[in-house]
Amino acid sequence: LGGSISRAIQQMSNATIIDEKVLNDCLNEITRALLQSDVQFKLVRDMQTNIKKIVNLDDLAAGHNKRKIIQQAIFNELCKMLDPGKPSFTPKKGKTSVVMFVGLQGSGKTTTCTKYAYYHQKKGWKPALVCADTFRAGAFDQLKQNATKAKIPFYGSYMESDPVKIAVEGVERFKKENCDLIIVDTSGRHKQEAALFEEMRQVSEATKPDLVLFVMDSSIGQAAFDQAQAFKQSVAVGAVIVTKMDGHAKGGGALSAVAATKSPVIFIGTGEHMDEFEVFDVKPFVSRLLGMGDWSGFMDKIHEVVPMDQQPELLQKLSEGNFTLRIMYEQFQNILKMGPIGQVFSMLPGFSAELMPKGREKESQAKIKRYMTMMDSMTNEELDSSNPKLMNESRIMRIARGSGRQVREVMEMLEEYKRLAKIWSKMKGLKIPKKGEMSAL
Length: 441
Ligand code: GDP
Ligand code: MG
Known about the structure:
This protein is an alpha/beta fold. Helices cover 55% and strands 10% of the residues.
């Protein structure tokens, strides 16, 4: 009896140690990912401490998918870190608000000012732009060009060198013209320096903005915290916009900016064009930060739907950004094999709502089979290419003839492919689990 008790105790303590080890391994892995995504070291450490307090080792011992429990806890914790607890000032349509943009030179202020104005204009607002950057030559021309393109009224001067004077004049004018969103673009410097912050303070005092927006380049790395804090100390930053999220940066600096300014991120910039601008959404952002793609649970879904032996290859291709027609074909095969089709479908990102409306599973299944017949008439080159331009008119006609389908149907199939490719391309740059880690995930 004594032997079995001690054995049981030993087993119990072993179990705890194992769960603690799983927790630590998992945390270390995610710590690495977060540091690579430029999350500030101190924030990562705080998060680790919190997670250890939150995750209950007993739950881990009882639960089957330990990693899932831990991942979920980390996910929630990061979401919490991006929420400063109070919303930022939100301008109201039809009421005059002054919004001042601040940030270092090159962070994307001028571009983002126009995007912000354009975004609101499309919703029926009357925005206006004021160029209070007299520091950089060409600043006014840039704003003028942007504003003209978007048909947004603007104000600035080639002669006047006092940014405060221009800012005040511009705001006054547009108040008189009943604009409801008066946006003041300011100058930046290459470095954080006293003169810049003094200028920001003066412009802010003179124009009394309802909201000061701090614009931050997502690729500045670990510098984010200090930069955001420096701006917060001179002007009352109330919200953050993170730019250049289309690049390589995963944007961990956003966490720093929130921590340093105690303000929320409200938009992100995803390109140089006017409409490459998105409302910031915490969950997809955190998924991306954790290398989980742009939505939570992407990996889980792949693991559930895609057969084990196909997973490494698929993930490798997706991480390279190659969602080819052949991959689509193979995923169709997987889906048809698995049934009941409704359940399986909704598991793979992008394969749900559009491709398979609820309650119309039979039709969806027929559609997939039709698509696959058409793809059977494609050449290897066509199936393995990720160049959408390859599919020219003569190829489309050949495929239609070969499969006994209409050109229109082939085009519809290719449209579907493009839609999925766009969604799945977000897996680009994904960290691929090493052999052996796969089943543990
Ligand atoms: P400012 O000095 O802060 O006013 O920055 P600008 O607005 O002049 O932007 C600096 C550069 O960054 C320009 O070449 C912009 O086109 C580019 N830029 C701004 N926002 C984005 C973005 O979200 N994505 C990309 N790829 N480029 C951006
Ligand atoms: Mg500028």
